[in-house]
């Protein structure tokens, strides 16, 4: 069997803080096929960003990857030396974040920053890198790219800055794009522009995308498969249609009915999930969702449910799925 | 006569039905430039708004960031002085009240913010935070105030035993409940809720939306509910006003606005808002607008939406389209409304 593009196995990442050990990512496993878009959803603090940063090996103190394997085309990222990591980041795997300002240097022109990345990873000379940069800026539909090459990040709007990040990310032909809440800071009409662009480009470049978001609407339209996280763990994994049509885990079910949507008559009560997610330093025994779960049974509070197959390509970590 | 009804009559009602009436409301902020900091222009944050909030309703105000929603909300409560126009509250023009008379009026109107604690002293206990409005208006003795605070905590679903805790001990959703309790302290008639659920996760957002709905029924509240989230707006609102670049571009009953949007901006906004439904996402036609929202310092002439509008004709660049009734009780500011 051919290797998956990315295979994360039993990943565990923790932060060693004064308040205790934060178990940010616990025993997380998932995979991505070539040119597939995988949605990673869950509420804030559930471990989405830490998972993404772990894949890129960008976890700094007080954090540490304490277990698991991260196989990129069969090679373990956790075993790579600095040089291999350098080739990996920005070359084979590119990442875009919610706030592009943090990844753009305010004192260099936008064109300069994209072409530097291209020079390093594609080993092109100045002129070729410049041409490639302008081509990429045009492909992400930045109007007047030749002129805007010499502009600084602050001269771009939020949506345009995110396009710059996408241009930079895709300029080196990565096989995987990790996009962490790429449109969360954008207004809805600008979000639609950026998502539309990401979809078109990932098809064109055959790039796989790990799309992280808290917005179930965004993944509904973008992802082929979805992984749902809760309190540092994957609690459900399913093809997009199955996840929305027949969610198996009570948390996924609750999340879906908490979103106000157009098919629900106005004014009906939303099904809120009582309480809040648990503290990752002091997780409850058993299932982490048990304290909020409408279907909880005594067993749930003592034993931890493993992720198990519940339907075609659908897995859930619950003793009482559906 | 009929033409007049459909046309020039502002979307107004008599003062009996409307709790709040905005007429020609403008809020401009000066833009300073140069070494001397002279005024070189103005941000037209709210640029001529006529709007009524009916007694007991939730009027949803939706639009993208920077379109003027918060400024409008603050101007309604006179937390910002309008540059021009009037704000009538129960028929009295707030912009003309003396400071003393305005202060007495304040009791009836409160605001709920996105983060209720960004502006509060973190050293205050929960009890003190909620009691503060009562102190400010000299309401009750300490025993009565304590009782009121405990009652309010119960009303918003928090434990009355938490009065001595500090805001930082609470989660985002609980803090929003505290903000709501504080806003209710003086028994207001009208609440401006400015993005009250925007910082919350969906499961917690649902709790707060349900709470706001329940309290409205219980206390007969009137809401101006501001949000950029179309799902939340639709869920809570009886009527919806869509704002773009300081103007109201569409106004109508919530269901009618969603089912039959008239203004191209509303049509684009609704089509761009992702829904948690893969079938719908796969089949729906999405209108992708080009470009960004123009600067409110130099808004386009004519219709403010014209540079991004796929329907725009010459008249759109020249003549501002007044807010006119296009369907029963449903108004739009567009020369070429409808699908
Ligand atoms: N640098 C850090 N130090 C301590 N805890 C951290 C750090 N970064 C993340 N965490 C914790 O890890 C958990 C997961 O965080 P994150 O992956 O950012 O969540 P998400 O992206 O799903 O919102 C959270 O509880 C967060 O507080
Ligand atoms: N105090 C202020 N001084 C100058 N400009 C302001 C001020 N407050 C808001 N603005 C500007 O007014 C416009 C409308 O802002 P705001 O009402 O906050 O919009 P919204 O709430 O819809 O995001 C924006 O361009 C904003 O930058
Ligand atoms: S008035 Fe013209 S530009 Fe404005 S929304 Fe209508 S059609 Fe578009
Ligand atoms: Mg995150
Ligand atoms: Mg605002």
Which two chains touch over the largest interface? A-B, 43 and 44 residues
First-to-last CA distance of chain A: 32 Å
Our count of helices of chain A gives 10
Spatial order of the strands forming the largest sheet of chain A: 6-7-8-3-9-10-12-11
Mean pLDDT level of chain B: 91
Largest sheet of chain B: 8 strands, mixed
Describe it:
- The complex is a heterodimer of chains A (322) and B (339).
- With 322 residues, chain A is an alpha/beta fold.
- Chain A has ten helices and twelve strands.
- Chain A has an eight-stranded mixed beta sheet with strand order 6-7-8-3-9-10-12-11, sandwiched between helices. A four-stranded antiparallel beta sheet of chain A has the order 2-1-4-5, with helices on one face.
- In chain A, helix 3 crosses helix 4 (126-139), helix 3 (110-122) runs parallel beside helix 6 (158-170) and helix 6 (158-170) runs parallel beside helix 7.
- The radius of gyration of chain B is 21 Å and the shape is globular.
- The two termini of chain B are 27 Å apart.
- In chain B, strands 6-7-8-3-9-10-12-11 form an eight-stranded mixed beta sheet, with helices on both faces. Chain B has a four-stranded antiparallel beta sheet with strand order 2-1-4-5.
- Chain B has 339 residues and is α/β, with parallel strands linked by helices.
- The model of chain B is unreliable at 1-13 (pLDDT under 50).
- Chains A and B meet through helix 7, helix 8, helix 9 and helix 10 of A and helix 7, helix 8, helix 9, helix 10 and helix 11 of B.
- The structure holds adenosine-5'-diphosphate (2 copies), iron/sulfur cluster (SF4) and magnesium ion (2 copies).
- The site of one adenosine-5'-diphosphate (ADP) has 15 residues of chain A, from strand 1, strand 2 and helix 1.
- Residues 263-264, 303, 305-306, 309, 311-312, 316, 321, 334-336 of chain B line the site of iron/sulfur cluster (SF4).
């Amino acid at each position: 069997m051919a290797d998956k593009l990315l295979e994360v196995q039993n990943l565990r990442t923790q932060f060693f803080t004064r308040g205790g050990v934060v178990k940010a990512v616990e025993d997380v496993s998932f995979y991505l096929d070539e040119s597939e878009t995988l949605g990673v959803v869950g509420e804030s603090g559930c471990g989405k960003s830490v998972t993404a940063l772990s894949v890129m090996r960008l976890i700094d103190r007080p954090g540490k990857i304490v277990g698991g394997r991260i196989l990129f085309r069969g090679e373990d990222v956790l075993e790579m030396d600095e040089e291999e990591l350098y080739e990996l980041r920005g070359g084979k795997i590119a990442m875009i974040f919610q706030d592009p300002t943090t990844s753009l240097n305010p004192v260099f022109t936008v064109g300069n920053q994209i072409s530097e990345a291209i020079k390093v990873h594609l080993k092109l000379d100045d002129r070729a890198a410049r041409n490639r940069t302008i081509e990429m800026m045009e492909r992400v539909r930045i109007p007047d790219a030749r002129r805007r090459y010499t502009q600084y990040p602050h001269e771009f709007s939020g949506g345009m800055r995110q396009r710059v990040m996408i241009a930079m990310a895709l300029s080196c032909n990565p096989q995987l794009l990790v996009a962490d809440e790429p449109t969360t800071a954008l207004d809805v009409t600008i979000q639609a522009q950026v998502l539309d662009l990401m979809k078109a480009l990932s098809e064109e470049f055959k790039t796989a995308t790990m799309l992280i978001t808290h917005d179930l609407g965004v993944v509904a339209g973008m992802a082929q498969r979805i992984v749902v996280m809760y309190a540092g763990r994957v609690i459900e994994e399913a093809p997009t249609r199955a996840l929305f049509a027949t969610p198996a885990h009570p948390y996924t079910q609750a999340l879906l009915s908490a979103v106000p949507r157009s098919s629900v008559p106005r004014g009906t009560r939303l099904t809120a999930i009582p309480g809040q997610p648990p503290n990752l330093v002091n997780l409850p025994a058993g299932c982490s969702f048990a304290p909020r779960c409408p279907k909880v049974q005594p067993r749930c509070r003592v034993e931890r449910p493993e992720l198990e197959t519940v339907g075609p390509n659908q897995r859930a970590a619950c003793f009482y799925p559906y | 006569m009929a033409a007049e009804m459909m046309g020039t009559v502002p979307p107004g009602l008599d003062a009996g039905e409307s709790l709040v009436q905005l007429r020609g409301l403008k809020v401009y902020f000066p833009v300073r430039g140069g070494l001397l900091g002279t005024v070189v222009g103005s941000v037209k944050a709210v640029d001529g708004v006529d709007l009524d909030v009916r007694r007991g309703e939730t009027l949803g105000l939706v639009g993208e960031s920077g379109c003027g929603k918060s400024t409008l909300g603050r101007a309604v409560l006179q937390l910002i002085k309008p540059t021009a126009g009037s704000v009538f509250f129960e028929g009295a023009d707030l912009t003309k009240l003396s400071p003393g008379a305005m202060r007495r009026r304040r009791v009836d109107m409160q605001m709920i913010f996105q983060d209720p604690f960004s502006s509060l002293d973190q050293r205050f206990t929960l009890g003190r935070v909620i009691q503060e409005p009562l102190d400010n208006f000299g309401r009750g003795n300490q025993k009565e105030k304590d009782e009121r605070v405990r009652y309010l905590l119960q009303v918003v679903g928090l434990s009355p035993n938490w009065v001595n805790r500090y805001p930082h001990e609470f989660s985002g959703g609980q803090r929003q409940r505290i903000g709501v309790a504080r806003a209710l302290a003086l028994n207001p008639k009208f609440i401006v809720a400015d993005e009250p659920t925007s910082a919350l996760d969906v499961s917690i957002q649902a709790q707060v939306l349900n709470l706001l709905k329940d309290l409205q029924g219980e206390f007969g509240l009137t809401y101006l509910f501001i949000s950029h989230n179309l799902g939340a707006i639709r869920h809570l609102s009886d009527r919806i006003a869509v704002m773009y670049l300081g103007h109201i571009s569409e106004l109508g009953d919530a269901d009618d606005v969603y089912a039959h949007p008239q203004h191209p901006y509303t049509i684009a906004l609704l089509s761009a808002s992702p829904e948690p439904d893969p079938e719908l996402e796969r089949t729906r036609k999405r209108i992708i607008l080009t470009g960004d929202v123009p600067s409110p310092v130099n808004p386009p002439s004519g219709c403010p939406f014209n540079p991004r509008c796929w329907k725009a004709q010459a008249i759109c660049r020249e003549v501002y389209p007044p807010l006119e009734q296009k369907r029963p009780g449903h108004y739009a500011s567009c020369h070429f409304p409808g699908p």
